[in-house]
Amino acid sequence: MHNLLIFKTEKLLRQALTHRSYVNEHPEEGEQNERLEFLGDAILNFLSGEYLYKRYPEKEEDELTRRRSALVDEKQLAKFAIEVGLDFRMRLGQGAIRDGGFHNPNLLSSTFEAVLGAYYLDKNSNIEAVRAIVEPLFDSVSEKIVVSRSNVDSKNRFQEWVQREIGANPPKYMTEQIGGPSHAPEFVAKVLVDGKEYGIGKGRNKKEAEKDAAEDALAKLKKRGLLE
């Protein structure tokens, strides 16, 4: 068993593996994993940024950003999830299972983040314990990453434009669920800068909706001739 699945508090691991679709069918289970996913995402972004900063001292910010985007994108995190054995341990509702949930990159990547968040808490908020888990995974793929402008996700590209053309305040995303079944919810996101709306997007989760909103903002900027 991979170390990422060895917990002192089994309840914490169980929550990290529990998707909202499972809780909707088994309400006695209590909390699902989205809060842990939020925590794991923040930890992963910090550790991946620090890892690349140290590994590539000669690289500039733009290239480090592209490498980080590729290192922690949905497809790569889904591969990490499978590598550590999370795929068939995810606790999904029957609808999600029928829709191929055990192989769904979105569910896999989200669960990976949730388990990282839970692991951090299980180890008494010790970031070094999480670093010991993720750095070998990063090592296994870091040299295989093809660095191109397309590796920078739309949220990062829009933030770069905002910082270059408007100021230091980063874009803010307002995201909410608007419908859909428990195993395939629909979200809508708006991206604002200094209170002004720049784009709107939809997706199957918050990240996807926010990415779509950023893409909408970039498309509008291009249409106005403000972005190449």
UniProtKB/TrEMBL annotation:
Annotated Pfam families: dsrm, Ribonucleas_3_3
The catalytic activity of this protein is classed by the Enzyme Commission as: 3.1.26.3
Swiss-Prot/TrEMBL cofactor(s): Mg(2+)
Tell me which UniProt keywords the record has, alphabetically.
Cytoplasm, Endonuclease, Hydrolase, Magnesium, Metal-binding, mRNA processing, Nuclease, RNA-binding, rRNA processing, rRNA-binding, tRNA processing
Q: Where in the cell is it found?
A: Cytoplasm
* rRNA processing recorded as keyword: yes
For Mg(2+), which residues are the binding ones?
A: 37, 110, 113
Q: Which GO terms describe its molecular function?
A: double-stranded RNA binding; metal ion binding; ribonuclease III activity; rRNA binding
> Quick one: a GO cellular component term?
cytoplasm
Every RNase III domain range: 7-124
Catalytic center residues = 41, 113
Q: Name one GO biological process term.
A: mRNA processing
**Residue ranges annotated for the DRBM domain, each copy included:** 153-223
Q: What PROSITE patterns does the database record attribute to this sequence?
A: DS_RBD, RNASE_3_1, RNASE_3_2
Query: Which SMART domains is this protein grouped with?
Result: DSRM, RIBOc
Assembly mode:
Homodimer.
In the record, the note on similarity to other proteins reads:
Belongs to the ribonuclease III family.
Mind telling me which HAMAP family this protein's record contains?
A: RNase_III
Could you tell me what this protein is called?
Answer: Ribonuclease 3
Organism field: Anabaena cylindrica (strain ATCC 27899 / PCC 7122)
Per the record, the gene is rnc
